[in-house]
Design goal:
Chain lengths: 61, 818
């Protein structure tokens, strides 16, 4: 039965871990804006320009 | 923004091959070509070239619903005043070394393409380090390097690509809103964590195993529960304690007082039992209760992100204005204007302070400020008041007053704006608080006195148990959930209320005061009706072509009315300012103008073709759809109705049709008169709801018990108020009033439900046999059923009233009243 002490410790530590993760997420502002990130994630990576590249484009970083 | 597109042309939707601008998708009759795409103007081409050269043409493919603003080029608007140090300091969110952060409000954000492009600003401007869009607030937060880039450069770039930032005088007085939502999220998280874990450790109690497990386990579980409950008491529940304490200091028993009493008893008794080894305590109930309360607070704290209920005149005025000094034109922030300065007011700009008109043909649109529905002509040398909007040519005005002391802004020096905000605590909760504090104390003492002579140990047990059970937590929950739910339903139908206190305010209202212009009439769409022989198509074309050349508001209205007709070349165009216009079209002499200009008799705007009377136009206010029903509803329900307008007694027969009692109609009322009128009604014992729209109603809205603002477009300026009603939902307003008034009754009924549970609990408590199990079951069940009762009844009420469909786009407004 003594193993229960150990299990309780582990369960509490895991639970605390989740609490920390949640608090961290709040601090990062994850819950401040609930609309924009959902739109942002739908963009694909940047596709190349429709025109073959020219020297004008090379100049820009 | 810059060039407003003609809606009738956009709807034609020419196929791409027939010369549609690749950028703004409007017709391009004489297209500029680049890369095989057509462009309507230099501005659009510039934007395209800019995007193209930075590999950002994906912009055009992202969102089929995108409607891009016409490009303005990169040097167009003058943001010179952004170079002003003082202005910069106030606009920047923070500044550390060379890094600064700013956020701009961009009203043009409307689709995911906008989001995509604006978050790629670092590609367009190397000085920008990072830009993040908040779509709901239509704002972008930009971090940039001050050594490479300036505020002015940023604003000019944004305006150039079609997202002109909007600046208002209030931006300079910005106070960061407190981040209460984050604090609540922390508190909720901690409480939720504690409830879940304490419940786990309470399982032996729930299952009746406490005698079978070894005593060291029960002791350990008890201690762990206690440790978990401490942050709940000291952190999560701290706001309740603070509010109760504040109430006690003010000798005012609010609902948090009995609530805190109950919670404290719960915690102290549990601690006593655990430390003394006599029982397992009720810490699961304690933490669960705090958790539920917090959810209630979170639920009521709905914010309509895009709306603001706190605006004053500063949110209406621009940040800066063009000032003429020693023959030099400079853009100066409004806060630095001085008496005697000469300011230039261009077409559609707002006059920032009172002054004397020095030069120019002034047609001032005061509809928002005074309620006058037609632009007022002002002669040079006459006084001109702040807040009006010039329609027409550029004016020169010599300022005679400071911005803060002008006719309009002095309204904000009135008492109504200084007295503390309308109660932040719910009135309902306040009433309940008083009753419950005494009820709990009486019940507790009763139990104590009954048991004391019989059994001392049981006396303490019974006393604490009564305090725990009688705790009005379910009532505290009923208010935010019931009213918060109604707040949401109303929001879905176009009435956005500031908070649940505004929902409460609906009950008890018995006087309704209306403003005229813009509130019961439509602000923008006054009808110009034509009387005379039917107009042929070529005559309509001629009218459109002729009026297009004039800047007079009536000309613009006419040009808009016939926007569907073709454009014809006009010869010999002539405009006699303030009188009329004439010109030759297709060999016919057209003349449109005032009675005197056309040599006619009577009222109206006359049309002469080849010097012969052809007909005349008359301007009519159109009343909003559903006004009749609305007034009927109020009168049937014994509300007194009043009309108070800043306008001259125009169209009084039409008004009389709606307000037959002449004593209830007041014209030519100044903003201060309106405020005083509402105050007078209140002093005679009435609770007043004010419906208004403009700055001239701001005082009355503030003074009234419930101020509702009507808005055609919720992005536009609205004065401070308790609620904003979308104009399209105007005809639904009677139903909304009924629903909101029902809300308070629903809360009262749910008190009855809550009390039933409390009495069941009391019967256990008084017999001193309240087991943790009973408490753990009774409390959540009573809370959840009270919440469900309130929410479902609210939904049913809304359904019964027919508040089902969301607001539909503007119904045709046909009220025959000519």
């Amino acid at each position: 039965m003594e193993v229960i002490f150990l299990l309780i410790c582990i369960s509490l530590i895991v639970a605390l871990g989740f609490l920390m993760a949640y608090l961290n997420a709040v601090r990062d502002g994850q819950f401040d804006d609930e609309v924009t990130p959902a739109m942002r994630i739908l963009f694909d990576g940047d596709v190349p320009s429709e025109k073959p590249s020219t020297s004008a484009e090379e100049q820009t970083k | 923004m810059s060039v407003h597109s003609d809606p009738s042309i956009v709807s034609i939707q020419a196929p791409a091959s027939v010369g549609t601008c690749y950028h703004c998708q409007e017709p391009a009759p004489q297209p500029l070509k680049a890369n095989g795409h057509d462009f309507c103007c230099r501005g659009c081409l510039t934007v395209y070239e800019l995007l193209e050269s930075h590999d950002l043409c994906q912009y055009y493919q992202l969102d089929p619903q995108a409607q891009f603003q016409r490009g303005q080029g990169l040097d167009n608007p003058s943001y010179a005043w952004l170079d002003d140090e003082e202005v910069q300091e106030k606009l920047l969110d923070f500044k550390a070394g060379n890094t600064a952060q700013v956020h701009f409000h961009l009203p043009n954000i409307h689709c995911s393409s906008c989001l995509w492009l604006l978050e790629r600003l670092p590609k367009l401007e190397p000085g920008v380090k990072n830009s993040r869009v908040n779509f709901v607030e239509k704002s972008v937060s930009i971090q940039f390097d001050l050594s490479v880039c300036t505020l002015r450069k940023l604003a000019t770039l944004l305006a150039g690509i079609g997202y002109a930032p909007e600046f208002r005088m209030s931006d300079l007085y910005r106070v960061e809103p407190p981040k209460t939502s984050r604090r609540m999220a922390y508190q909720l998280g901690v409480a939720g964590f504690a409830v879940g874990n304490i419940m786990l450790f309470s399982f032996p109690e729930y299952l009746g195993l406490e005698r079978q497990i070894q005593p060291q386990f029960s002791q350990l579980f008890g201690y762990i529960s206690l440790a978990l409950a401490l942050p709940v008491l000291f952190y999560s529940a701290s706001d309740f304690f603070r509010s109760a304490w504040r109430g006690m200091l003010e000798r005012h028993l609010n609902i948090d007082v009995p609530l805190v009493l109950g919670m404290l008893m719960l915690f102290l008794r549990s601690t006593w039992e655990i430390l003394g080894g006599t029982g397992a305590g009720y810490l699961d109930s304690f933490a669960g209760l705090v958790f539920l309360m917090l959810i209630g607070r979170w639920f009521q704290q709905i914010s309509w992100n895009q709306l603001s209920f706190e605006r004053d005149y500063r949110a209406y005025f621009p940040v800066a204005v063009t000032c003429k000094k020693n023959g030099e034109e400079r853009v100066v922030p409004l806060s630095r204007l001085e008496i005697g300065d000469t300011v230039l007011i261009h077409n559609q700009e707002i006059i920032p302070a009172d002054g004397i008109l020095l030069k120019g043909e002034a047609q001032i649109d005061y509809s928002f400020v005074s309620g006058e529905s037609e632009p007022v002509p002002v002669k040079a040398g006459d006084k001109i008041y702040a807040g009006g909007r010039q329609v027409g040519e550029t004016l020169e005005i010599g300022l005679s007053r400071l911005v803060s002391n002008s006719y309009l802004s002095s309204l904000w020096n009135q008492e109504a704006f200084k007295s503390p905000q309308k109660g932040t605590m719910s009135r309902l909760a306040d009433q309940a608080g008083k009753v419950f504090t005494w009820l709990i104390l009486a019940a507790g003492l009763g139990a104590l006195l009954y048991w004391l002579p019989r059994d001392t140990a049981n006396a303490i047990n019974a006393f604490t148990a009564v305090m725990i059970v009688a705790c009005p937590c379910n009532i505290v929950l009923s208010i935010p959930f019931t009213l918060g739910n109604i707040l949401r339903i109303l929001g879905h139908h176009g009435l956005y209320l500031k908070n649940i206190q505004s929902v409460e305010a609906f009950s008890g209202i018995n006087a309704v005061v209306f403003d005229k212009t813009g509130t019961i009439t439509q602000a923008q769409t006054q009808a110009l009706d034509f009387y005379g022989a039917n107009l042929q198509e070529h005559e309509k074309s001629a009218i459109r072509s002729l009026t297009r050349h004039s800047n007079h508001p009536l000309s613009r209205r006419l040009a808009q009315q016939y926007a569907g007709s073709n454009l014809l070349p006009v010869q010999n165009f002539e405009e006699i300012l303030g009188k009329g216009i004439c010109g030759v079209i297709d060999g016919q002499q057209y003349q449109i103008g005032s009675t005197a200009f056309c040599g006619m008799e009577g009222d109206g705007l006359f049309l002469l073709i080849d010097n012969e009377y052809h007909g005349h136009f008359k301007l009519h206010s159109r009343f909003r759809f559903g006004l009749e029903n609305l007034l009927q509803f109020f009168r049937q329900n014994k509300y007194s109705t009043w009309l108070i307008s800043g306008d001259i007694p125009r169209a009084s027969e039409q008004v009389a049709a709606f307000f037959p009692d002449a004593d209830s109609v007041f014209f030519q009322q100044s903003p201060n008169d309106k405020l005083r009128f509402v105050k007078k009604l209140q002093q005679s014992g009435q609770r007043v709801m004010m419906l208004g729209d403009g700055l001239n109603d701001a005082g009355a809205l503030q003074q009234s018990d419930l101020g509702i603002v009507l808005a055609e477009d919720t992005n536009n300026f609205t004065p401070a108020c308790d609620g904003i009603l979308h104009a399209d939902a105007f005809h639904q307003f009677p139903k909304m009033v009924q629903l909101a008034s029902a809300g308070v009754n629903i809360v009262r009924w749910s008190y009855a439900v809550a009390l039933t549970y409390n009495f069941i609990g009391l019967s256990y408590a008084l017999s001193a046999s309240l087991s943790p199990l009973v408490a753990a079951i009774l409390m959540p069940i009573s809370s959840v059923s009270v919440v469900l009762f309130g929410v479902l009844l609210g939904n049913w009420q809304a359904y019964r009233l027919g508040l089902k469909e969301d607001i539909t786009p503007s119904k045709p407004v046909e009220v025959a009243l000519t």
